[in-house]
Every structure is written in C-alpha cells, then in structure tokens.
C-alpha cells in the first residue's frame, strides 16, 4: 500500500542540527542532495540550493530509514517494513510502499540487482526481499540467502555478492542460485 510523506522544515535552534548522534547511513545522491539517516530521523540537505536542511516525516511520524540507494531518477530509502522514494524530477516524495512480514523487517542494506530490481536485506532475519522499481512490488526472495548481512553489491556480470558477518562472501547468479562461497579458508588476497 502507498502512504504519504512530507518534507517538514526543522525548527531546531541551529538549522544544521543532526536529529540524533546514532548515524545509520549517509548518502550523496545523483542530484547532489545529502541524506543523513539517523536514530532520530532522516535529515535532507539540498546540495543545489545551499545547505538548508529538512527533517522528513512519514505517515505522520518522524521518518525512519536505515539505508538508501540512488538511481538516475530517484533515491530509494529502506525503513521498517517500507521502501520510500524521493523523485528528482518532482523534488518530492511521491511513493511509500509498505509491506508486511512475520516479524518486523528493518531494511539495513539495499543492492541494485538489475535495472528494475533492488534486493532488500536485513540483519538478524533469515529472509531477503526483492523490490521492483517499476511496479513497487515487494516479494520474498525464494532462495535462502542467509542473514546478518553487512554489505552487498552487483558485479558487471549481474552476479549478486553478499557479505555476512563472520562468514565471508557469497556469490549468487542472476536467478539467485549460490555460485561460490569465499572465506579465509578458500581464498587468498594476493594475485599469486
């Protein structure tokens, strides 16, 4: 379902105050906007019109996001059981996609997997989700990708690389089938 998001000007004594000292993620998007995602909410700093800041509100609450990813058209944010989008052409938030899971799913990492697919990952939950940029559809990934993700990327061949805390690197093909696992036991850092 889609929700509503507003940009609310901060009323803090200092216009550049952080909402919280616990910073989850920082991003400079493709339009030179700066985003600070913190335990106290999301701070937006317009890189094109000077460094004025705005605190985000989502569904009448302070917006919460743990990670973000930028495309040519928009920046997508991962929060608690939701993905929200800031579109560059409108300069506005024009979509919030909420989804339900068995337990609360805090999106802590997002990986652009193809032109229209983003993989949503979380720490502590043995589940990953796929978000379709074109349709705003969220669905569980069928394959067991594990849990405690710390990082991820998609390579030039379209393979998905995921790092899990203390377990090394995992490489998956375009259909999310495991290709290879790399740990300190089976890989060298040198190019010997």
Q: Which helices and strands occur, and which strands form pairs?
A:
Blueprint: E1 5-9, E2 23-28, E3 34-38, E4 41-45, E5 53-58, E6 61-62, E7 67-70, E8 74-78, E9 82-87, E10 92-98, E11 109-112, E12 117-121, E13 129-132, E14 138-140, E15 149-154, E16 160-164, E17 168-172, E18 178-182
Antiparallel strand pairs: 1-5, 2-3, 3-4, 4-5, 5-6, 7-8, 8-9, 9-10, 11-12, 12-13, 13-14, 15-16, 16-17, 17-18
Key terms for this structure?
192 residues; mainly beta; 46% strand
Task: Explain this structure.
It is a single chain. The strands form 4 sheets. Strands 1, 2, 3, 4, 5 and 6 form a 6-stranded antiparallel beta sheet that branches. This protein has a 4-stranded antiparallel beta sheet with strand order 7-8-9-10, with no helix packed on it. It has a 4-stranded antiparallel beta sheet with strand order 11-12-13-14, with no helix packed on it. The chain is mainly beta. It has strands spanning 5-9, 23-28, 34-38, 41-45, 53-58, 61-62, 67-70, 74-78, 82-87, 92-98, 109-112, 117-121, 129-132, 138-140, 149-154, 160-164, 168-172, 178-182. Helix content is 0%, strand content 46%. The chain has no helices and 18 strands. The radius of gyration is 18 Å and the shape is globular.
């Amino acid at each position: 379902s889609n929700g509503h998001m507003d940009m609310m000007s901060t009323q803090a004594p200092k216009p550049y105050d952080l909402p919280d000292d616990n910073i989850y993620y920082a991003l400079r998007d493709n339009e030179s906007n700066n985003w600070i995602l913190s335990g106290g909410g999301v701070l937006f700093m317009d890189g094109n019109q000077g460094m004025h800041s705005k605190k985000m509100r989502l569904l009448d609450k302070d917006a919460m996001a743990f990670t973000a990813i930028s495309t040519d058209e928009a920046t997508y944010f991962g929060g608690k059981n939701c993905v929200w989008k800031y579109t560059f052409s409108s300069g506005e938030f024009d979509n919030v996609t909420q989804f339900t899971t068995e337990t609360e799913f805090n999106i802590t990492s997002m990986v652009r997997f193809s032109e229209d697919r983003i993989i949503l990952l979380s720490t502590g939950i043995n589940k990953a989700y796929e978000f379709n940029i074109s349709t705003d559809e969220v669905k569980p990934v069928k394959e067991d990708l594990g849990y405690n993700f710390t990082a991820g990327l998609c390579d030039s061949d379209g393979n998905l690389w995921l790092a899990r805390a203390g377990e090394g690197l995992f490489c998956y093909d375009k259909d999310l089938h495991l290709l290879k696992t790399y740990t300190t036991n089976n890989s060298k850092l040198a190019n010997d």
